[in-house]
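Lecture 7, part 2: worked example. A protein chain together with zinc ion.
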Amino acid sequence: MPGKMLDTTIAGSLPKPAWLATPRTLWAPWHLEGAALEEGKRDAVRLALRDQEEAGIDIITDGEQTRRHFVWGFVERLEGVDFSKMITIGIRADRYKAEVPTVTAPLRRKGPIHSDEVRYLRAQTRQRIKFTMPGPMTIADTIHDTQYGSRAKLGMALAALLNEEARELAALGVDVIQLDEPAFNVYMDEVRDWGIAALEAAVEGLACRSVVHICYGYGIKANKDWKRTLGHEWRQYEETFPLLAASRVDGVSLECAGSRVPVALLGLLAGKDVYLGAVDVASETVETPEEVAKVIRGALRHAPAHRIFPCTNCGMVPLPREVSRGKLHALARGTELVRRELLGS
Ligand code: ZN
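Predicted complex, written out as structure tokens:
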């Protein structure tokens, strides 16, 4: 299906139905078991697709309905990770505590990880599809390591496994593979020292587009408190965008709505696809289409329309479902306003 200009998509996650997992909760436990859980996940994916298609979103995700947390979907199915050895650590430079599993042996894929999910998603929609996985640095930051001895070594090992998986998913018909790297806004030195190399290794040779999602996190209290410490202008992207512009990744997904990111930083991403966060996930107020349009118009001063993909700032899993649906509609309608302006009609 050919792309229009300003194709819309979402960062990745959508809220889960209350019968599947506790709403508005990260790492929410499943409410179903066994075969009923598998069926329930698939039903939830159908609803997530339906909500996106009904709103008019162009590039569809599965709403991450099949994973408990955006990092666990991949990690749960790796050999070498022991989920019976859970330990509480500070993640994202100790911004919050998380109970994480332990790497106790060399990491390997036991087999395909997301193939079944992608086959299902591909069969359920005629729209283009995007599939998300955690990036190497973010996984390394969300796990306890007793095997590799350095985050760089662990990250490069993860990158090789992500690349194996991503190549298979691209062959199954995924149009865009996204790696989520919120850690890229936290460990700026590590991004330069090994993060970019790991990201490049993870997307090498893909037969589809690639994008890295770098945000300021879900709209939860710990992140809102952290954002208040970042000053009048958030300039973290200023360090990473030139490195990404020179890298092999095709695009960058960033936070722009309701944030203090200077939109001019988009100028540092020349030649890359820009997945423009035009919907704020830290607020339960649904944007008006005009508010979304305003963010897009601002971005158009620094990047061409065919490179801009209006998007959400981050995942919407912690939001109420009706708010999330409202934001999907606002994203599509606000984008349509700008398309009409550009076409002069
Ligand atoms: Zn995010």
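The beta strands are 59-60, 78-91, 96-109, 128-134, 144-145, 176-180, 209-214, 251-255, 273-279, 308-312. Residues 34-77+113-343 form a domain with the TIM Barrel fold (CATH 3.20.20.210). Keep this in mind for problem set question 3.
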